[in-house]
Amino acid sequence: MNAVHFILYVADQDASTRFYAAALQREPRLHVPGMTEFELPGSAVLGLMPAAGIRHLLGDALPDPARAAGVPRAELYLLVDDPESAHRRALDAGARELSAVEPRDWGDVTGYSLDPDGHVLAFAGRSNAR
């Protein structure tokens, strides 16, 4: 396996692209109608695909993803050097805070928010206690 791609279905590709560009502090490596891609550390890629496009791609085999708009369907958990700053950038870009950055039971310090499409976004850092 050379790379892992995570694809989030979004209502507005351009709005989600602006949000993630601000929250991740990077420009997409690909931005064409139907797909936006951001390179992430570890050879991972975050993709943004319009929910309407997935219906065209997969047909009627699955329920329409647009019907679940606003229902958390995925969590993007990102390990970063400064979770407080990253969490703040996401909030400034339009995320809705679920939980401030704080120590968690598993040893990370993590802040949680919702992106504009209702996906859970977590910025975490490893605790020195690990």
Sequence stretches where pLDDT stays below 50 over 5 or more residues: none
CATH first level: Alpha Beta
Give me the number of helical elements.
3
- Per DSSP E runs of 2 or more residues, the count of β-strands stands at 8
The strand line-up of the biggest sheet is: 1-4-3-2
Distance between the termini: 29 Å
- Provide the CATH topology: 2,3-Dihydroxybiphenyl 1,2-Dioxygenase, domain 1
Number of individual domains:
1
Percentage of residues assigned to helices: 10-25%
Mean pLDDT: 90
Class based on secondary structure composition and strand pairing: alpha/beta
Strand content bin? 35-45%
What is the radius of gyration? 15 Å
**Full CATH superfamily name:** 2,3-Dihydroxybiphenyl 1,2-Dioxygenase, domain 1
Task: Let me know the largest β-sheet.
Answer: 4 strands, mixed
Overall shape? globular
Element pattern in H and E:
EHEEEHEHEEE
**Can you tell me the CATH architecture?**
Roll
Walkthrough of the structure:
By secondary structure, this protein is an alpha/beta fold. The chain has a single domain (4-59, 72-126), classed as 2,3-Dihydroxybiphenyl 1,2-Dioxygenase, domain 1 (Roll), CATH 3.10.180. The chain is 23% helix and 38% strand. It has helices at residues 13-24, 51-58, 83-92, and strands spanning 4-10, 30-32, 35-40, 44-50, 75-79, 96-103, 108-114, 120-126. A 4-stranded mixed beta sheet has the order 1-4-3-2. A 4-stranded mixed beta sheet has the order 5-8-7-6, covered by helices on one side. β6 and β7 (108-114) form a beta hairpin. It is globular, with a radius of gyration of 15 Å. The two termini are 29 Å apart.
